[in-house]
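User:
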Amino acid sequence: MRWKNLGEKPVHHCKWFKLNLADVELPDGTHLDHYVLRQPPVALCAMIDDQDRVLMLWRHRFITDQYGWELPSGGVEEGESLAEAAAREAEEETGWRPGPLTPLLSLVPNPGLSDNLHVVFSADSAEHIGDPVDAFESDAIEWVSLAKIPDLIAAGDITLANTVAALLTLCRIRGV
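Assistant: Predicted structure:
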């Protein structure tokens, strides 16, 4: 049963998102107003070393007032490819430059509200190039064993949907 978007009117616009109000027609012909959050894509980078460890950030998210492990990530800048954004964010947030990037997965975390595409890349190597440029992004940067990932998720130490999906995918691929 397909819902039809008959048009959207802008409610608010800033550099991070556009909030629109859509006129939606349901399959039975009923119309309803539905808010739609339009957001640019997000790119993530999972850097894995030769010991099956992934480079993670321990950071606080003020909106939920929670700490947790996350992969380096951020928005894609104008004229930048998703892979370029993933590599740039990894360097800025960790001080490590990823090796060649391979697409790992794509997801839309909240399709009932937003069109925000998240694309995760993996790298089987990384080179330390210095301190992170965006040191304010995290309290710690650590190599975390993939074998510990399921327990960290179960304990609530990894809750960010894109990070959970990426790490569970890596665990499956690597047989961890």
